[in-house]
Structure formats: structure tokens, C-alpha cells
Amino acid sequence: MGKRVMEGVETEISGAITPKWQIHAGYSYLHSQIKTAANPRDDGIFLLVPKHSANLWTTYQVTPGLTVGGGVNAMSGITSSAGMHAGGYATFDAMAAYRFTPKLKLQINADNIFNRHYYARVGGTNTFNIPGSERSLTANLRYSF
Per-residue pLDDT tens for 36-54? Predict the structure, then answer.
């Protein structure tokens, strides 16, 4: 196995702007490099992390039962050991939740609402290229007992 070095910093902050308005933000910086590679194909996976990633999420309680929210996830580009590059991207998500009773809650999530096409991982010309998730809409009904 070769010699690898990864250095970075990560920070997050969460809080309430008002009693009904919550916010969460995060940022990560990672610098990774291979000093000596035993096998470029094996060690190359180590480089498949973005240098910069950030997220921002907020929710607002509209009524005692209804909460809405939205956010963004962003990442800088990545380059594989084979030299393939995937550009940076940002995806936007939204949610709405309604609490019918203290025990019954319905939540609807919309992920990647603008259907941004991106690659979560890149490898070679025709291998290990993994597209990111497309737009999706999910709903869940939760009953606590």
C-alpha cells in the first residue's frame, strides 16, 4: 500500500433564528493526496472526495401542525486518478410536514427538485462513473406509540 495524506477541517452551526425558524449550515474542506502509490487503480479511490462541500438547511413552523423547509447541498468538482473530472454541483431539496396529533405525522420530501444531473463518483473513461440521484418525491406517515 502506498502513502496517503488527508488533511481538512469541518464546521457546523445550528440554531433558532426565532422560536419557529430553525437553521443548520455546514462546511467541509478536505485536501487529499497520494504521496506514493502502490497501485494507481487501488489508491485512486482515495482521491474521489470533493475538496469543498457545504450545506444549508432551514425549517419554519407555519402553524402548530405545519412545518416547511428547504436547503441546498453543494460540492466542488472531483478528479479520478485516471484524469476524469466531474464538475461541482448544487442540489436543492424541500419538505413539508404536518402533525395531525402528537403521535401522527405526515412528511413529504422533494430531493434534487431542479433535477440537476451530476456525477457522485468518477473513474475511468467507461468504468466507475456513478451518476447522482435524480429528482425524487417521497412521503412517509409516522405513528409513534
Answer: 766 655 555 556 778 999 9
For the four alpha carbons of 39, 40, 41 and 47, in that order, the dihedral sign comes to positive
Domain extents for the chain? 3-143
CB of 109 within 8 A of CB of 137?
yes
- Pairing mode, strands 89-99 and 130-131: unpaired
What are the cell numbers at 76?
Answer: 466542488
**Residue 140 or 119, more confident:** 140
Contact 32, 50 (CB under 8 A): no
Residue 74, judged by CB atoms within 10 A of its CB (0-12, 13-18, 19+), counts as: middle
